[in-house]
Write a structure and sequence with these properties.
5-stranded antiparallel β-sheet, 3-stranded antiparallel β-sheet, alpha+beta, about 15% strand, about 280 residues
Length: about 280
């Protein structure tokens, strides 16, 4: 086993050698679980492991040791979505590759839903991009998700992720990513959920061309650099708040962009007809 590669608030991931498979894999440690939670996790893992798709990471084995849980999965040769967007958006063919990445991500998410599995935590940190521009979705099927999570909330989160990426690329490729930005607006507009069929989403990303009845008027995209994770967090909290009202506080020192962050997030909510109250 090698030193940790990734760490977040709930887990640590390292690489390890799988003797049975004769290959290097990723080993992820999850928080300690109760016996009841362990049984539920085993069922969820078996279901998630059965889903095979080029845009989903392959899950291998689940282990328990002294109430600690580990599972192994495919070691993906790729980089994080955030890093890919930063490094590749200066390339001439970026718009084509951008749409290829998100079309693959949509296919992976649709494959999960086809098997009755929700992601429930779709964010940029859960996506890797291979050298051939194929997206790989991670961290699915095991988190449980907030109460009231659904396929609609997964597609909403996809729309937030797509919109943030499109807006962040608009300075160099505004026209080329306009359909993606419009699609993101559509996906985050709850009243238009009937138009967000997975096959239609993939078609728009691969071929472009929203129909007149689908496209929604959108404001000129405004760049908000370096706030992808914060916007993802606000989007997840908003989805959770649809089932259980909560207070979300954006806090931090003066001058770091709290108002710009809140304004940008409110812009994403506006097409859904959500009333935003402002005060001084």
């Amino acid at each position: 086993m090698e030193p940790g590669l990734w760490r977040d608030a709930l887990s640590v991931m390292t690489t390890a050698w799988d003797c049975a498979r004769n290959e290097r894999v990723v080993l992820k440690a999850l928080p300690a679980t109760s016996p009841a939670d362990s049984r539920a996790l085993q069922r969820a893992f078996r279901e998630a492991r059965e889903v095979r798709h080029p845009n989903l990471v392959r899950l291998h084995e689940l282990f328990f040791a002294d109430a600690q849980c580990f599972y192994s999965m495919e070691l993906v040769n790729g980089v994080s979505l955030d890093r890919w967007l930063i490094e590749e958006r200066v390339t001439v063919d970026f718009p084509v590759r951008f749409h290829r990445v998100f079309a693959g991500l949509a296919r992976g998410l649709a494959a999960l839903h086809h098997k009755g599995i929700l992601h429930s935590d779709l964010r940029s940190a859960a996506v890797l991009v291979r050298p051939d521009d194929s997206a790989v979705l991670l961290d699915f099927g095991l988190g449980g998700g907030p109460e009231g999570a659904s396929t609609a909330s997964d597609w909403y989160a996809f729309g937030v992720l797509l919109g943030d990426a499109a807006h962040g690329s608009a300075a160099l490729h505004r026209t080329a990513v306009s359909d993606a930005a419009s699609l993101a607006t559509l996906l985050t507009t709850r009243s238009r959920a009937d138009l967000t069929r997975p096959e239609r989403i993939v078609s728009v990303l691969e071929q472009g061309g929203l129909e007149p009845g689908e496209a929604l008027p959108s404001r000129e995209p405004q760049l908000l650099v370096g706030r992808t994770q914060e916007l993802d967090r606000l989007a997840r909290e908003h989805v959770a708040a649809l089932a259980e009202p909560r207070l979300i506080v954006v806090d931090g020192p003066a001058g770091i962009g709290k108002t710009a962050l809140a304004d940008r997030f409110c812009e994403q909510l506006a097409p859904a007809g959500i009333m935003v109250l402002r005060g001084s």
